[in-house]
Structures are given as C-alpha cells and as structure tokens.
Specification:
A: alpha/beta; 4-stranded parallel β-sheet; 22 helices; B: alpha/beta; 10 helices; 6 strands
Chain lengths: 460, 260
C-alpha cells in the first residue's frame, strides 16, 4: 500500500513502509549507497511527516521482511508481548514520540517488551537528538554477572587491551594501565588477532588469573566467533561471556556464520557454567549500522532500522552487554562526525527503548571525516543520555584494529563533568585496594605499584 | 598514576605498541600526548587524501625494468571514492578499452599497483616491494603483463584488470586503511582466475607490508609461496592457507633471493 504526503503543489508518494522509513531517515551515506535515501530535503521531511501519522499497529501488521523468509522477523513477531504493547497500541508514531517524552521510567520499562525494532526505528526517525537523549536517559536496563551494570548515574567501561600479536605480556601491560585508571567494570574484553583455540586458551587463562588473583568484581571476554567460544567451553576453558557480532537480517547473520540455533546453544552452554556470582547475563553482542548492506543482505531497508532489528536478536538472549561499533565500518555508511554522532544517539535510544543494555563504541576510522573532537561531543551526549558503557583503549588508539575510540582518560573526563560512577561493586574494589578515594576519584601516585604488589608476577 | 619517568611504566610500555603509561593532567592527557596523537592523526589523514603521483610511481616501477600502463577506476575523485566503493571496484570505460587493446596473448600474472586508502604507502613502498618480488618471478619463469598503475582503486579492481589482461592470476599492491601508527602500510591481494564479481573469500591477503611491519623481502617470499600454490592447485582464497611460515621456521628457504 503506497503512502502519500502533500506539500503545497507536490504530492510525495512512498511505495511501501520500507521505502517510507528509508526516506524519513536523516540522510547518511549508507542509505545513499543503497539507493534508498531521500532525494531531496523536502522529500526527507515529507516522509517524516507521513511516518508520524502511521499507527503503531500498522507497523506491527506489515513486517518489512516477510515472516516466511527471515528468522529475525519470526523472532520479532514470535517474541512480541501483546500485553505490554496494549498500552501504546492506539498511538501513531507521532503520538508515540510525545508519549515517550512524558513517560516515567516505570512506564518505559513496562512497554519495552511490546516495542518492536521497527516501532523503535520509526519513532527514532522523527525525534531530534535531544529527544533521543532525554528518553534514553529515563530507560532503566540493569544486568548482572559479577557486578551490577546500568544503574542510574553510572557508566561502565570495557577495558580493551588489544595487541597486534596477542602477546600475553603486552596485553597484560594494557590491562594494568587500564585498571590503574579505574577501567574494566563492564568487561575486560580483547579482540584477538588469531581466531585459534590456542590463542583463546592463552588469553582466557590470562584474564581468569588476573581477575582471580586481584579479586576484581568483573568479567572477561575474548571476542571470537561464537563457534570458537563453544569449542572453548566444551574443552573446559574459563569462559565468562559469549561474544558474537550480530545483524538485523537472517542473511546478514549468515554472512557472519551465525544462526539463531547456534546462539541458543552457546547461551545455554554459558548458563550451565554458572560462573556469574551476582547474575546470569552471559552474552555480549556487537552490532553496527551498515553491516547488512555490506553483506548485501539489506532487503531495501534503511540501515538504522536494520540496526534496531539486531537488538531484537540480542534481547532474546538476555545479554550483559551490547554495543554498537558506531563509526567503525567506514565513511561509505556513516560519512562524517555529524552522521556518526546522530547514529550513536539513535542506536543507544533504540536499544534502551527495547530493554537492551546498550553501550557505544564511540569511534571513527582515518578515512572518515571525523576526529577526536567529534568523539568528545558524542561521548558527552551519550553520558547525558545514560549510556551503559563505552570503550577504554590506551590513548584511544587501537593498535590492532587500526581505528580510534575512547580512552582511559576520556572516561575520567566524562565522570568528572557529569558525576558518573562505576558499577558499585567495582567502585568498592577500587577503594579497597587503594586506587581511589571514597568518592571514586583516582588517588595520586603509585596506583600501578599497588596492583603489582597484589600480583607481582603479572608484569614480570 | 602512570608518569613517563616511572621505571615500571617504561618497562611495561616496551611490551606493547599501545599508548600506555601516558600520564595525565587531571582527567586529561598531558599536552605532549595530545599533540603526538594529533600529529599521528594528521599523518593518517594526509595518507588518505594525498593523491597518488601515478607518473612518479610509473617512473619508479619502470626503472626496475617493468613496462607500465596507467588506469583509473569508475570513481572520478576522492570524495566519490570514499562514498561509493562500488565505483572504485570497476575500471573506467576508457581504461577498460585501453587494457583490452593492450592485452595480447594470455599471461601468467598481472601486477597492479593501486592507491587504495594510502598513496603514501604506494609512494614509499610499491617499487621496493616489486624489486623484492622480481627475482622470485624470474626464477619461476612467469610471463608477466605490464604493471598496471591504478588510481582511485579498491581491491576488487584488480580482478577487472586481471580479466582484461587475460592473466591466470592477479596481484594487487594497494595502500591499506591507515592506522595512527601505520600510515604507510601496503596490502598484497592475490586472486587466481581473476574476473569481476570474485568475492573476498576467493582472495588471499598479505597485510601490514611496510618497513616497520612485515618487511618487503619476507612479503615477497610469502607472495611467491602463495602464487606457486595457487598455480599448482588452481585456486586462491579461504581454501588456500598461508603455510609459508612452516618453511621459514624450518629454515629452508633463502628469503632474500637475488639480493645481497
């Protein structure tokens, strides 16, 4: 069924819901590359106006990819909570924006299971950046493994100790540096160069040893393919969290070599290990706008909507952490700082609205029109929006993946400006070992020595 | 807190190229580190945006004794190149015509030097890489097409070049996406039976080729190993694993053949 919107003498026609949503999206390079973006500024606004008048029920009734063709669509519809949806079932997209701006945290938590990714994406397209920040800030998504992540007024950090050859001593050096800045409550998580089980074994044992000997209330993860992690669990290696990159269509997931049954198998295997002391959120997912298009698996749907569909996949497995690697994939998907900033706020909002613990890898590559000033801006906006966690990378320079993200220093900055705390158990640990004062501020001098006193052979 | 004068941090910093032990000024970086980071980013940006001097590259390659041909991709400028990877993967109509006219009898190997995302990598490393590879090619007796110098090119452009030149295999020497500490890195991509539409899974890659990374002689050795295997087995890509390290560990090969 075509959608129409008239502006003065011109009537804009949109062939179907996917077209309407693509044309209503704030323009970005990836949708242009796919040939589905609005072709004029007026068409972009006409589509938003038209989309605002679409009932949420109509979005639910018109899957963008047919139920029979795509297991992500089946997951979205099979998992949909009609009771939770009932409260918003009578609204249009435009009404829903106003509902969200006035809703309490309790209301937002109640409706989350009724919000499909397409509904989240649709309302996102007619919201300004300040709307995305204000509503996300009210959403509460709390998860637990060995600490508590997502409490109001907190921001966690993934300590990312990547190394170009996975050298254990080099990785350890980065971990000690990060811990000395009070980073690592979200996870100590490495992207290894090698996907081999030997590397996996070495790194898992290294992390397990550090966390055990220093008694750090946190969790570790080696970010390899889910099948490698399954292999590691079968061999009895110390796996805390299962990692996988996921996307919003069945075909895009297939291009990652992943299916929903494999995710379920890995989830069940990790639950059975019972390694969490405070909770059983055992999954860690990464996503990013443009992944479906780069796999030629986008079905003519805009990249922001597909990204929200990936959060529906994540939601089913009750993850501890999910992050969008927002500027990693390159300028053909998000061209410059403005597009990266907008996408980061969109992804965080959609994830939180759907009840997913969303963090953001605030990042860019050297062929994008962006720099560290843009990352400062996005980090500050995400801090205001109540982002679950960000990355902590030595000097913001990932020497393995060749991109720039946020640093150990950057998290100190955002804590000082916005008064954000770490996960409470981690905060208590830092004070106990003498790295921070009672308010969580770093104490001057000697922090690393104290860490090494606790585990003298780590940097031997 | 870490300070540059701290012995412990100096010791730890030697274990990784990561930027650790930087010290801090309150929540921020010391001024020295802010400026060092800014300079590294500036160099990486310049590597992306500096146009390749195709004439100079052709001159340096020609001086090694290789005939050369210049081509352009379907991306007319850098802005289009960055937004439209599809344009960078195909030859411009004029270049496709020129290559088709230049093609004679089928050859074993077509070599392509391409700007990719770092002209600096090509300016500083392409001729040295070809010089290191030439003795391997001569020893193998491979019949080579003229070396193609390609502007605004993505990796897959090599397959179009290889097909137009009727080559059994193509090797692309291309500037890689620069990192802050590696603005000068070349990638070598090998496709057996090149033709447009080949996927990444059908190519082999040797990356991080630069003086401070994988050196030219070792890269040439690995490339020769992969090419020999590709010709023998009639394939490239994920089914052709680079096992040249086993030979190196066994100490069998003379890596820098033809060089003293």
């Amino acid at each position: 069924m075509p959608y129409r919107h008239t502006v003065g003498p011109r009537t804009h026609v949109f062939a179907d819901l996917a077209t309407l949503m693509a044309k209503a999206t704030p323009v970005r390079s990836g949708d242009c590359l796919a040939g589905i973006a609005a072709e004029s500024a007026e068409e972009n606004m006409a589509a938003r106006w038209c989309l605002a008048e679409v009932p949420l029920k109509a979005i639910l009734a018109r899957p963008l990819i047919p139920y029979e063709e795509d297991d992500v669509t089946r997951l979205i519809l099979d998992d949909h909570d009609e009771t939770a949806f009932a409260e918003i079932a009578g609204l249009t997209v435009g009404d829903f924006r106003e509902f969200l701006l006035t809703a309490s945290s309790e209301t937002l938590a109640r409706i989350a299971p009724g919000v499909t990714p397409e509904i989240a994406a649709a309302v996102c397209k007619i919201m300004r950046n300040q709307d995305l920040i204000l509503v996300a800030r009210k959403c509460r998504v709390v998860t637990r493994f060995r600490n508590t992540i997502g409490l109001p007024g907190t921001l966690a950090v993934r300590l990312q100790p990547n190394h170009p050859t996975d050298d254990p001593a080099g990785v350890t050096a980065s971990i000690l540096d990060g811990l000395s800045y009070g980073c690592g409550d979200a996870v100590i998580g490495i992207n290894p160069v090698s996907d081999s089980i030997q590397t996996m074994s070495t790194l898992l044992s290294l992390f397990d040893g550090i966390i055990g000997r220093l008694e750090i209330p946190t969790q570790a993860c080696v970010l390899t393919h889910v099948t490698t992690t399954l292999d590691a669990m079968n061999r009895g290696l110390p796996v805390d969290l299962v990692f996988q990159s996921i996307a919003g269509t069945q075909r895009a997931n297939a291009s990652f070599g992943v299916t929903l049954p494999i995710l379920r198998e890995a989830h069940e295997a990790a639950l059975a290990l019972k390694r969490g002391t405070l909770g059983d959120n055992v999954m860690y997912f990464e996503t990013g706008q443009g992944s479906a298009l780069s796999a030629d698996a986008h079905h003519g749907i805009d990249q922001q909507t597909l990204e929200a569909r990936a959060y529906a996949v994540a939601r089913r497995y009750r993850p501890l952490l999910v992050n969008t690697v927002v500027g990693f994939i390159g300028p053909e998907y998000l061209y410059d700082g403005k597009e990266i900033i907008r996408a980061g706020l969109e992804d965080h909002f959609c994830g939180k609205l759907m009840g997913v613990p969303l963090g953001v890898d605030v990042c860019y590559t050297n062929h994008a029109e962006a720099d560290q000033d843009d990352m400062d801006t996005l980090l500050t906006l995400l801090g205001a929006a109540g982002c679950t966690y960000v990355m902590g990378i030595p000097g913001a320079d990932d020497v393995m993946l060749n991109y720039q993200s946020t640093s150990f220093h950057d998290q100190l900055y955002i804590r000082e400006v916005l008064g954000l705390k770490r996960a409470p158990e981690f905060e208590e640990w830092l004070a106990r070992i003498g790295l921070t004062d009672a308010d969580g501020a770093l104490l001057p001098g000697g922090a690393a020595s104290r860490l090494l006193t606790a585990a003298p052979d780590l940097a031997a | 807190m870490s300070a540059p004068g701290d012995d412990l941090w100096q010791r730890l910093a030697r274990l990784t190229p990561a930027r650790i032990g930087l010290g801090r000024a309150g929540a921020g970086l010391p001024t020295r580190e802010v400026l060092k980071f800014g300079l590294a980013h500036a160099q990486a940006r310049d590597a992306v945006h500096t146009p390749m001097d195709a004439g100079a590259v052709a001159g340096a390659v020609g001086a090694l004794g290789f005939p050369t041909l210049a081509v352009t991709s379907g991306a007319p400028d850098r802005a289009t190149y960055l937004r439209r990877p599809d344009c960078g993967r195909r030859l411009s109509p004029e270049s496709l015509k020129a290559l088709s006219e230049a093609a004679q009898e089928p050859v074993d190997l077509a070599l392509v030097v391409a700007d990719g995302l770092s002209a600096r990598a090509v300016h500083e490393g392409a001729a040295a890489m070809l010089a290191a590879f030439r003795p391997h090619a001569e020893r193998a007796g491979w019949h080579l097409a003229p070396v193609v110098i390609a502007t605004q090119a993505r990796v897959a452009l090599g397959d179009a070049v290889g097909a137009a030149l009727k080559a059994r295999a193509v090797v692309m020497l291309i500037g890689e996406r620069p990192g802050l500490s590696s603005p000068d890195s070349l990638g070598l991509y090998l496709t057996f039976a090149p033709k447009p539409g080949r996927t990444d899974a059908e190519r082999n890659c040797i990356s991080n080729v630069r003086p401070a990374g994988l050196g030219f002689d070792l890269a040439a050795f690995k490339l020769n190993w992969l090419l020999t295997q590709a010709f023998a087995r009639g394939l490239s890509g994920v089914n052709l694993k680079d096992e040249s390290d086993r030979l190196i560990e066994a100490g069998t090969p003379d890596i820098a053949i033809g060089r003293s």
